[in-house]
Amino acid sequence: MSIPTTAGRPEKAIRALDVSDSLWRQSIRQLRKNKLAVAGFAFIAFMFLICFIGPLFSPYADGKINPANMHQPPSAKHWLGTDLLGRDVLTRLLQAGRISLTVGLASMALSMTIGTVLGIVSGYYRGVVDQIIMRVADLLFTIPGLPILFIMGALMSDWKIPTDYRLYLVMLMLSIIGWPGVARLVRSQMLTLREREYMQAADVLGLSDKRKLFRHLLPNVFPLLIVIATLSIGGAILSESALSFFGLGVMPPTPTWGNMIDAANNVIDFEKRPWLWIPPGLAIFLTVIAINIFGDGLRDVLDPKQNTSR
Amino acid sequence: MSEALLEVRRLKKYFPINAGLLNRTVGYVKAVDDISFTIQPGETFGLVGESGSGKSTVGRTILRLHEKTSGDVLFKGIPFHGLPKTEVRKLRPKMQLIFQDPYSSLNPRIRIGDAIGESLLEHGLAEKDELRDVVLDVLEACGLSSYHYSRFPHEFSGGQRQRLGIARALVLNPDFIIADEPVSALDVSIQAQIINLFQKLQHTRGLTYLFISHDLSVVEHLCNRIGVMYLGSMMEMASRDELFSRPLHPYTKALLSAIPVPVPRLKRERIVLKGDIPSPANPPSGCKFHTRCPLATAQCKELVPEFRLVGDDHYVACHLV
Ligand SMILES: Nc1ncnc2c1ncn2[C@@H]1O[C@H](COP(=O)(O)OP(=O)(O)O)[C@@H](O)[C@H]1O
Ligand code: SF4
Ligand SMILES: [Mg+2]
After folding, report:
1. Which of B284, B295, B218, B283 lies closest to B253, judged by CA?
2. Inter-chain CB pairs, A–B, below 8 Å
3. The CATH number of the domain where A159 resides is what?
4. Which UniProt keywords apply (chain B) (predicted)?
5. How far, in Å, are A240, A243, A246, B16, B285 from residue B26 at the CA level?
6. Is the link from the previous residue into A253 a cis peptide, with omega within 30 of 0?
7. Is the dihedral of CA B115, B116, B120, B121 positive or negative?
8. For the segment A143-167, what is each residue's pLDDT rounded down to a tens digit?
9. What 8-state DSSP symbol labels residue B94?
10. CA dist., res. B295 & res. B95, Å (int)
11. A5 contact B CB<8A
C-alpha cells in the first residue's frame, strides 16, 4: 500500500491508511468484537487440537482390548474410565473426534464444491441447465435428509461394505444430502448479484463474461460460501453422529462420537456408567453449538447484504 | 446538417407484466413508447420528465442494457442494435453510462484503481505497466487524488463517488456519455461541482452528452437541446432557449412553473398538476397527459396528438398548439 502524500497532516495520513483496509480485514475486526463468536472459534480450535494431537500422548492409543479392565469408572489412570472392552474412554473419545471432525470437514468440502459449482452454473447461465440442476436439487431437498441417510446406511450394511470404505461412503452420502442447499443459496446469491447496478456497469464497460464471473461475481459470493461452509460442518457432524448412533454409519472398532454413544445404549450403562455416554454426547453438543455460534457471528459480519447496502 | 452522433428512431421498450401461476404475460409496461430524437456531435441533449416517465429506460435501451421492443438506434450511422455481441463489445468504449447512484454502480470489493483500469485491459487499450499512470491521469482530470487509487468505494463521499463513476467512463475515452440523473442523489452544494465537471470535460474532450434529469433547472445550465418526456412519449422538444422562452406544451409549462425563480417579480404563474403520473401499464387514451392537463378537451381523450414540427426545430405533441 502506498503511503498517501499528506505531509504535515499526520492524523490524516494515519486515517487514510487504516480506512484503506479491505472489507475482509474490516470483517475480521468486527468479528473479533463478537465475544461469543470468538469463544466459539476458540472452542473449535481447541477441539481440533486435542483430537488430533491428544492421542499421541496417550498410553492407550493402540486401542488394545483388555477384558480384565472393563467398565472402570474414571480414575487417575483412566480419566474418563474404560468401556466394555477395557479401552480408555478419553483416548477413544479423542480418536473418535478425529473421525467425526474429518467426516464433517471432508463432507463439507465435497458438498461445498459440488453445490458451489452447480449453483454458479445455474445462476449465471440460467436456462435449461439451471432448470435441470434445480429440479434435481429440489428432489433431494424435499426428501428429508435423515431417512435417505438411513436407507443408504441400511443398504451399505446389506451389501457388507468393509468398515474402512464405510467411512468414505458416509462422507459421500452426507455430501449428496448437503449440496442442494449450498447450490440453492449460491444460485440465489448469483441471481441477486446479476441484477446489481455494478454488473450493468460491467456490461456497459464491455467486460468479458470471464471477468464478470471471476472478478465481480465470485468475490461477492465468497463471504456467503464461508458462512455456509462453517455451518455445514456442524450439520455434517450431527448427521454422521445420528447415523453412527443407529449403527448405520461408521462401524466399530473405528470410533466416532455417534457410535460411542450407541455402544452405551442400554439401561445399565445409562444409569450406572455415565462416563460412557456423557463425554461423547457433550463433545457432539458443544462442538456443533460452537460451530453454529461461530457461523452466526461470521454471517453477521460477512453477510453481503449488510456490506453492500450502505 | 452534419451526420448525427446518435439517432434514435421510433424506439419502443415494453416490459412484459407476468402474473399468475403459469407466469403468463398479462400486459406490458410501455416504458418507452415510440421516441425519436437525434444528437449532434458536441451537443448536450437533455431528457426531462417526472420520475417514471421512462427516461432511464431510454438511456438503458440505447445502450442495450435492455433489448429494444422495436425501433432503431444509430451510433455514428452504425445500427447499434443490429450488431452481433462481439461487435457491440468493440463499440462499448465509445458509449458510456453514468449512473444515478454512484455507490451501487461500483463493486464494493474492487479497489478504485482496478475498477477504473480493468476496462482498459479488457479492450486492450493500455498495457499493464502503463495502466496505473493512465488511471491516475483520469482520476486527476475528475478532481480526485492519486492516494484514492487503492481505496474502496465505501471510503468516498457521494460527490467523490460520482467523480469515480465519471472517471470510470472517461478512461475509455468515449465519444458519447449518457448521464442518468448523475446529480439527483447528491447534496445541492455538490451538484454544481459535478455539473461543472461535466462541462469542463465536454470542453477538453469534445464529449457529447445525453443528460437525463427530472429537474429542468439542472438541465438548463448544461443542455443545448431538451426533450420533455411523459409516460414514455416525447411531449415537446426544442432548443434550450426556445423551450425556456416559448414553451408550448401544457406539461412543459407546468414543469417550468415549478422552477423557483430568484426574482419574485418575474415569477411565472405556478401551474400545479393534479394527481400522480398514471401507470405506464395502462396509459390514458388519446393524449397521455389528458388526465392531468388543465386545458384538456373532449378531443384530447380520444385522439393521440401528433408529434409535429411547429417552429425552428421545435416539436410538440398537443392538439391546442
Ligand atoms: N427492468 C424493468 N422491468 C419492468 N419495468 C420497468 C423496468 N425498468 C423500468 N420499468 C418501468 O418503466 C417505467 C419507466 O421507468 P424509468 O425508465 O425508470 O423512468 P424514469 O427514469 O423516468 O424515472 C416505470 O413505470 C418503471 O416501473
Ligand atoms: S393534447 Fe389536450 S390533453 Fe394533451 S396536452 Fe394538449 S391540451 Fe392537454
Ligand atoms: Mg430514472
Report:
1. B295
2. 84
3. 1.10.3720.10
4. ATP-binding, Nucleotide-binding, Transport
5. 50, 51, 54, 8, 19
6. yes
7. negative
8. 777 787 788 888 888 888 787 788 8
9. G
10. 40
11. yes
Domain that includes residue A202, residue range: 30-53+81-308
Cβ distance B311 to B245 under 8 Å? Answer: no
Grid look-up 461461530 returns: A294
User: What whole-number distance in Å separates Cα of residue A64 and Cα of residue A45?
Assistant: 29
Burial of residue B21, with CB atoms counted within 10 A of its CB: 0-12 exposed, 13-18 middle, 19 or more buried:
exposed
Ligand index nearest the alpha carbon of residue B66: 1
Judge whether B229 and B48 are in contact, CB under 8 Å.
Answer: yes
Q: Which ligand is nearest to the CA of B31?
A: 1
Torsion, Cα A229 A231 A234 A238, to 10 degrees, reads -110
Q: What is the edge-to-edge ordering of all strands in the sheet holding B6-19? A: B24-39, B6-19, B70-75, B78-79
Strands B70-75 and B78-79, bridge-based pairing: antiparallel
For A17, nearest residue in chain B (alpha carbons): B151
Q: How far is the CA of B231 from the centre of ligand 1 (A)?
A: 10
The vertex-B180 CA angle with B118 and B204, nearest 5°, equals 65
Side-chain-side CA neighbours of A104 within 13 Å: the count stands at: 29
> Does pLDDT of A18 surpass 80?
no
User: Could you tell me the pTM of the whole model?
Assistant: 0.81
Total domains in the fold of chain A: 1
Under a CB-based contact definition with an 8 Å cutoff, are residues B71 and B12 in contact? yes
Cβ–Cβ contact A253 with B under 8 A: no
In a domain? residue A74: no
Distance of alpha carbon B170 from alpha carbon B93, whole angstroms: 9
Within-domain flag for A7: no
pLDDT in tens, chain B (321 residues): 558 999 999 999 999 998 877 888 889 999 999 999 999 999 999 999 999 999 999 999 999 999 999 999 999 999 999 999 999 999 999 999 999 999 899 998 899 999 999 999 999 999 888 999 999 999 999 999 999 999 999 889 999 999 999 999 999 999 999 999 999 989 988 999 999 999 999 999 999 999 999 989 889 889 999 999 999 999 999 999 999 999 999 999 999 988 776 655 555 677 778 788 899 889 999 999 999 999 999 999 999 999 999 988 999 999 998
- As a residue count, chain A comes to 310
Measured in angstroms, how far is the CA atom of residue B255 from the centroid of ligand 2? 15
The pLDDT assigned to B263 comes to 57
Interface contact A207-B152, CB threshold 8 A: no
- This complex has an ipTM of 0.90
Q: Does residue A63 form part of some domain?
A: no
| Distance in angstroms (rounded) separating the CA atoms of residues B82 and A40 | 58
C-alpha pair distances (Å), A190 with each of A118, A196, A207, B110: 11, 10, 17, 17
Structural domain spans, chain B? 250-321
- A127: helix, coil or strand? helix
Query: How many Å apart are CA B219 and CA B216, to the nearest integer?
Result: 5
Question: Residue B177's beta-bridge partner residues?
Answer: B96, B209
Measured CA to CA, the distance from residue B270 to residue B253 in angstroms comes to 9
Q: What whole-number distance in Å separates Cα of residue A25 and Cα of residue A31? A: 10
- Cell numbers 441447465: residue: A129
Q: What is the CA radius of gyration of chain B?
A: 21
Residue A138 lies in a domain: yes
Within 13 A of B220's CA, how many CA atoms are on the CB side? 14
